[in-house]
Each structure stands twice: as C-alpha cells, then as structure tokens.
Amino acid sequence: MFDNLTNRLSVVIKTLRGEARLTEANIQDALREVRMALLEADVALPVVKEFIARVKEKAVGKEVMSSLSPGQALVGVVHQELIAIMGGEKADINLATVPPAVILMAGLQGAGKTTSSGKLAKWLMEQKKKKVLLVSCDTYRPAAIQQLELLANQTGTDFFPVHAGQQPKEIAAAALDFARRHFHDVMIVDTAGRLAIDEAMMEEIRELETLLKPIETLFVVDAMQGQDAVNTAKAFAEALPLTGVILTKLDGDARGGAALSVLQVTGKPIKFAGVAEKMTGLEAFHPDRMASRILGMGDVLGLIEEAQRGVDQQEAEKLAKKIKSGKSFDLNDFKMQFQQMKNMGGMSAMMDKLPAQLTQAAQKVKMDDKVMGRTEGIINAMTPQERLKPEILKASRKRRIATGAGVPVQEVNRLLAQFEQTQKMMKMMNKGGMAKMLRGMKG
Ligand code: GDP
User: Fold this and answer.
1) Is residue 320 part of a domain?
2) How much distance in Å is there from the Cα of 92 to the middle of ligand 1?
3) Strands of 216-222's sheet, edge to edge?
4) In sequence order, what DSSP letters do the residues of 304-359 get, joined into one string?
5) Signal recognition particle SRP54 helical bundle domain: which residues (predicted)?
6) Residues lining ligand 1, CB < 6 A?
7) Are 271 and 394 part of one and the same domain?
C-alpha cells in the first residue's frame, strides 16, 4: 500500500539537501512527488489539494533540526498531516446508551457488511466484554441471513432468528424487543446492500434508522474501491446520520486512498479496519499507525522522533545551565518551553500523561492548545530586544504587539503576568531549590 509514496519521498530525501530552512521554492519538487503519489493511490483530488496546501503551510519557514536533513524534516510534516487528515485521535466506538446499544451497518453489497458484523460482535465480546445479539435485516438474499447465522455460530454470538416473509422493519422491532428481554448490551443490525446506490435501499435503511435509533450507524466500505468508495460514501453520508466508518479489505492490494479521503468526504472517522477475511480480522483504527504504515518509512520516522527528543534534551540542559548561572529567565526561554510542549504533542496530548493534580492545575489556568498557540503568537510579535528585556514593554509597545498577534491587549498583559510568575518561580528554584519553590506555589 502506498509504495509509491515511500519511493517518491525517498527520492525527495536525497534531493533536498543542506538547506537550513524549508522554503516554498525548495520544497516545490518534493510536494509535486507527494501529490503524484497520493493521486496514484487513488486519493480524491480535492483531498489531495487540501493536503498539499496544509503540508506547504506547515512546512514553509520551518527550521531544520541539525540532526535531520531537510528531506527528513519534510517527511515529518507529511507524517503529521497524514495523521491529521485521518482525524488525529483514535475514534472509539460509542456504546453509551440505555442497552441495547444498537449498531446499524450500512453499505453496498460486497463491501463486507455481513463479515464485519460478525467480526465486530467478536471484538465487542472479547475487548469490551459485551453480550451481543446479531440481527440480519437483509430479506432480499436469504443466503445473507444464513451467512450471518453461520458467523454467529462461529463466533459464539447470539443470533436473532428470522421467519420467511418477515419485513425488515418487523424483524428490527422484534429483535429490539428480544434484546431488551434477554439483556443484550449491544445489538448489531446487518442490512441489505445493493450493487449501486438506489433510492429504495436508502429509504429502507432510513426507516430502520428511525425505528432503531442506533447509537452507531457505521458505513462499511471496501478500501479496494478507491474513487468509487468516495462517491458511495458521500451518498450514504447525505442519506443517513452516519457516526463512523469501517474500512474493509485493507489487507488486499488496496491502494489505500480511501483511508485518506473518507473522513473529508463523510465528516465521520474510520473506527475500524478490516484486515483479513477471518473473524479475528478487525482492528480499531489508529490514524497514527496508519500514517506510519502509509509512509512505510519506519527508519526516517524513528530518526525524526529521536531528533525531536535530542533537541528537547539540549534545550532543557541549556535552560538548566542558564538558571544555575544566575542569568535571568527571559521571554525567549518562556517561548522555548511552549515549543517543547508543542513538540510533545501539545497540551491535550500531555494531559493524558500528567498526574491528575497537574492536569487540574493546568485546567485552572485554562492552559489548552489554543491558549498555547496564542501565547506563541504574542511572543513572536515581539522584537528580540523586547523578549530579552520584557520590562521595556509599555503601553504603546503592548498595543503594537497585540495588533501584530491579532489579540486584545489584555491577552498580552495576561501573558506577561504569567511570564513574571514563571520568572519568580525560576528565581526561587535557583535560590532555595525545589522545597522553597513548592512553598511559594502554595502561597
Ligand atoms: P456484504 O455484502 O457487504 O455483506 O459483504 P460480505 O460480508 O459478504 O463480504 C464480501 C466479501 O468480502 C466476502 O468474501 C468476505 O470474506 C470479504 N471480506 C470482507 N471483509 C474483508 C476484509 O477485511 N479482508 C478480506 N480479505 N476480505 C474481506
């Protein structure tokens, strides 16, 4: 999958050399390669355009860390944007409702709905310890009902029996009643698919949706379908309130473009990926892992991470030395602290790793990624002199900085107060060590 992207970027890494900064001119050829690779992988054109624009915006002006080549730095940006285009964070399945939590499966015939229903049942039983009921509303193909029953037996899932002549809505209503009486946590409803979008099918599944009020309506789509998958996804997203996507057959020779396009087109995240025909072949979808897989550049990604850590280490040591030497802590140092936080994945990523007390403290001062971004913008709007000697910041300078950063003057004042607080803390650390600093914080 995406072999071309790896190959093309390998060339980029070799050709982009010796530049200290990424510029529009020196990344132009590289971006052309990325664009070609994405188009070859069958990513939808509007998605490619937006992707390239975002990479460009993030990359231009970026300083290249000393241990990386410019090409590697660009790969780093591409990697981050690949993660972002797939939604950034892993999107969990939502079961938070009065049981049974209904999961409605939608998609074209052959997409893998029935198979995925069986896999999902197994996954929910094993990973979430749920009692699951499998229901088939595919009354058009009796074989489809049998297929689901077979999968239910194979995975040890309860199966709701259907009688000849029953209509989808009747089955759904009866199954819901059955699931309530038998205390099923989750009820997965497989639906009829057609070879192409057709109004009768959409109407039927819309009716099922209204009746069942599913907490999850998952659109199942075959990754091998490429561009067609995008068109189908669009039609389903318009007809139904989808909550997520299952991307199947990622194990095949799919060119993978659908993985990048689907969120843009449907506005809904991929929640699961089908990676084998067998019942164990379903995985929770992780945008970061997928991005690494698409890039297929484990070595380069490792290098980038290491460089990042190296820089943080160097900077941290420099800062520690500076404090020890008694030099004052200025706004440049303050900014660097923010950058380090950003390198670590931003405030929201750090929150996950911080102990509860610290998380609460950060919430109290309303320190989130947005505030962090604004803070950096304000410091960037200052002159080097102002950063070194913040005490020269009087009203007119503050006004100029606020305009430059596009924030009200109060924000500049808030930042300066925060900086002073940090500076005080640094001084205390210097004089009396940690114990004194902690006392100071309490007061
Ligand atoms: P439905 O018509 O949407 O219910 O599609 P099915 O569940 O019957 O699947 C169609 C075909 O795709 C079957 O042969 C499945 O075994 C196969 N299939 C489904 N998901 C996957 C997958 O993730 N990987 C592979 N290799 N095959 C799959």
Assistant:
1) no
2) 22
3) 158-159, 132-136, 186-190, 101-106, 216-222, 244-248, 270-274, 282-284
4) HHHHHHHHHHHHHHHHHHHHHTTPPP-HHHHHHHHHHHHHTTHHHHHHHHS-HHHH
5) 1-86
6) 107, 109-115, 193, 248-249, 251-252, 274-277, 281
7) no
Q: Whose CA is nearest to atom 28 of ligand 1?
A: 277
What does the pLDDT average to over 60-68?
73
pLDDT band at 79 (very low <50, low <70, confident <90, very high): confident
Span 357-411, pLDDT tens digits = 445 545 544 556 677 778 888 888 888 888 888 889 899 999 999 988 888 999 9
CATH number where 379 lies: 1.10.260.30
> Of ligand 1's atoms, which has the minimum distance to the CA of residue 108?
3
Percent of the chain with pLDDT over 70: 77
- If you measure from the C-alpha of residue 317 to the centroid of ligand 1, how many angstroms do you get, rounded to a whole number? 54
8-state DSSP, 88: S
How many folded domains does the chain comprise? 3
Distance 36 CA to ligand 1 centre (A): 30
What is the mean predicted confidence (pLDDT) over 333-341?
Answer: 71
Residue ranges making up the domain that contains 41: 3-85
Same domain, 375 and 429: yes
Q: pTM (2 decimals)? A: 0.69
User: ipTM score here?
Assistant: 0.99
Q: Which atom of ligand 1 is nearest to the CA of 252?
A: 26
| Strand 132-136 relative to strand 216-222, pairing | unpaired
Q: Are residues 356 and 421 in the same domain?
A: yes
| Tokens representing residue 146 in the block | 């049998």
The strand pairing partners of 245, in sequence order, are 219, 270
Mean pLDDT of 259-283: 91
Looking at the structure, tell me whether residues 69 and 112 fall in a common domain.
no
**What's 189's domain CATH number?**
3.40.50.300
**pLDDT (tens digit per residue) in 109-157:** 999 999 999 999 999 999 999 999 999 999 988 899 999 999 999 999 9
